Amino acid sequence: xxxxxxxxxxxxxxxxxxxxxxxxxxxxxxxxxxxxxxxxxxxxxxxxxxxxxxxxxxxxxxxxxxxxxxxxxxxxxxxxxxxxxxxxxxxxxxxxxxxxxxxxxxxxxxxxxxxxxxxxxxxxxxxxxxxxxxxxxxxx
Length: 140
Fold this sequence. Notes:
Elements: H1 2-23, E1 32-33, E2 39-40, H2 43-67, H3 71-95, H4 105-134
Helix pairs in contact: 1-2, 1-4, 2-3, 3-4
């Protein structure tokens, strides 16, 4: 059963890492222009980059959860998945953020997508944790 949860985590993690790369403002050709003419990236660009750093370990956690057979390993991986799912939701809201203009692509597409994907990753991990706690150890 945890094989299903592991595969689901891998799919969600890939969405977490890939979707923000195409929904940030810089991918739409928008940057902040300073008074001296230099252009810099907006907050949503750095949020998209940070989500790669969150999605990559979540892919590994999902793969290991799918391959793991021991109750302790599955429990620890599920707890790690919950933490990474929460971190996915915190990045566009509190840690880095996105652009504050409600009409920007990152505000209308990236932020809700990351909140949904992070919530889904955390929910899948919670269900995997509960199922793991109910499972008897294979080597008893």
